[in-house]
Amino acid sequence: MQFSKKWIGATMAAVLMGGLLAGCSSGNENASNAKSSESAVPSGTAAPGEKPEDKSPIKITWFVDQDYYKKNWDPENNLLDKMITDETGISIDFTSGNSDKLSAIIASGDIPDVITLDKGSPQRGVLEKSGLVSPLDELIKQHDPDFQVPKSMQDWFRNPDGHFYGFASFFWAKESFQPGDRIRSNQGLYARQDIMDQLGIKAEDFNTKEGLVSALRKVKDSGTKYNGFTVTPAYFESWIIGNFFGAPREDSQGNLIDRERTPEMLEAYKFLNRLYREGLMPEDSQTLDKNQIQEKVTNGAVFAFTNRTIDWSALYQADPKAVFVHVGPVAGDSGSKQYVDPVSSSGWTLSMINSKTKYPDRIIKLFNYLSTEEMSLNVNYGPKGAAWNYDENGKVKLTDEFNTLNAEDANKAKLKYGNGTLQWLINWLPIQRTTPATSTEDARIKEESTIYFADFTYDMLPFESITPLGGTEEGGINAKIEEQRKKQRAKMILAKSEADIEKFFNEEIQREEKLGYQKLYDYQNKQFQEAKKALGMAFAWPANQKK
Amino acid sequence: MERTLEARHSAPASGTEGSGRRSRWKSQFALQSMVWPGLLFLIVFSYVPMYGILIAFKNFDLFLGVMDSPWAGFSHFREFLTDPNFMNVLRNTLAMNLLALFLGFPAPILFALLLNELTGVRFKRFVQTISYLPHFVSWVIFGGLILTVLSPSNGILNLLIVKLHISDEPINFMGNPDLFWIIMVGAEMLKGIGWGAIIYIAAISGVDPELHEAATIDGAGRFQRMRYVTVPSIMGTIVIMLIFAVSSILNTGFEQIMVMQNPLNLDVSETIDTYVYKVGLQQMRYSYSTAVGLAKSLVALVLLFGANYVSRKLTNNSLF
Questions:
Q1: Domains and CATH numbers, chain A
Q2: pLDDT by residue (tens digit) across A28-62?
Q3: Which residues in A lie closer than 8 A to residue B153 (C-beta atoms)?
Q4: φ, ψ for residue A134 (rounded to 5)?
């Protein structure tokens, strides 16, 4: 009996230990699987000196540092994958993960053939210095001299060693702009057309501060209700109003200006405070997040807003008259030109090539192939012919088969056509040029607003490198100052009197000094100057460039 | 404590030291083999990773690793302690926790006592289940519910207040810094009261019924029995829970505060945890975050020992 008891205990212990170690062992299994599949790649098919049309089947590995991204290469069922494999002979084995996983991959020294990572991630510099990835300019010279990478992209991502290592997705290369091309902005000024008509408000009324205030006042005084909701006159964001008032980003000597400290910004706070005190902008404008405001817009309870990413399509579906049109934008006292920030023009991700890959020639050609204008359309919509064709105006027209399947089950459409599943080398310009002719009124109005506010954008590229890198002291200072500003903004907008605003404004500057503002500014200005040098410009701000 | 000292002294007296220990090990083999996996687990997952604390004193570089990163001395600690926001976040953290300690700690005890006095078993179970439920809802959802209820534009509470003419204007609860602490503590109580009461209900169910019977015979009423029988019987449990609560006084729940924060209440809602998350972790400043975490743990350790010592002196109940 004693004996058996002992063994029961031992067995239980063994089972527990087994459970404990199970986690470890499964991890190892994965790693060894990955290894074996890598070594299973047929070797020797791409001997140097072969014809560029080499389409012998190869398999490459590709890591994407986006957790959500999942793609199984399926040339049998997926038309996009089939097209790429047919035309290049390459099958891609995608893996994905977060930035910790990327760090682990880099630390192991054994990286996949291609790595796609966020352009701002700290791993980028590490990879470029480590010698684990090849300079793209050398690969191009050696294997694919026809590959045209926009010069601004090369300049922008050039390392101090003179090479550039990654191809950017969603990069807006100014030199490849054609007449009519424009970069869009997520900032603007929008108001409800139906309410404007009802109250006799015109779009031009929003051009001046007084006009804007009296327009909003009309909405408030009329006590307009929509679907039982009292319509709130305005939800404005301070930084967008500051941009409208012309807050500059560069002084006459070419130094960086922090917009948040300009007189124009102070004017914006005073203006928004006036709106608040007159009951035209509610207190909850400072506490609601974008989704909550979106909900109000969908209910029809908002008259005007500045954030273009707020989508009013649902409201339009319910009431085709309730549309938001572009108005203004309001100008400041100085009368300087209104600006809006464009979307980031330096792109999203960078794709890099392993310097030890067996197929540098095939992969650089794959990069070339995937970054062409037509492939940008194909990865966005699915292969031409199957998912879309050009219409008589040279615009994209989606096929009925695609539309039917997409309406039925968007995921199924993705599995079949591969639309939007391989955007790591995409160029958005050709897609913007050929945007399908819109049939619905809301899409047409949105397109019109986009074109309207595109005129107020400026070239933001030189300003895009001023955000400090993660993990640095400047990054910490920046975060602290941002937190501080969030508080102070709300205080200024909801201040009891105008004198208070100036007090808070100056108080904020002093607090930021204590948090290490000067160090952050020096870093940002240095980055800014270097960016301008790389781009070959003396001044970056439009008002300075004209001089 | 005294007992362990006694045991240590008496060990050599038993003579056959080596063989005694081995035979004891043998005779306890079955039991020991159940303890070892737990110990191993603790060593592997709690003690081994502690070497990572090193990065609090280094400028940790992801690619150089823990050992090769350059030393930074106490600079991260200094940065946190001399931060102009330090006093503010410390005040908020302490204030919310002290409030939670004074209001939130007794609440589950009271609740358990009251629940215990219920006679209808069905109703008792029902109340117990209902009060547990919020514990299983994540803070993101629970916080969202509270925000919706308190919303000045269409929250049900404000609708009531305005319709009943308690106030003509809806009250912006979340925008008023004066109300934030109390809302926070209230929300935590609401969510945690049922769950927190479980342990006390268990303790109460262990109270000898004869004590109650004796008290009843002596003429004690309900409240007197609660006061003189139940509470003293579960005092040990209460004290241990209190020691735990005191030692975690620098930890505020992280999610609930993140969910309820907005620019208007940041001055009173920023706590050590949320601040370090924003300026440390989100910025990938692992060394800084670790330094603050370590400093907090040290304070917690001191508080734990302090609370333990005080309670041993005062009530003779203690953890160790």
A1: 58-173+346-425 (3.40.190.10), 187-341+445-545 (3.40.190.10)
A2: 434 334 333 333 333 333 333 334 467 889 999 99
A3: 282, 284, 296
A4: -90, 145
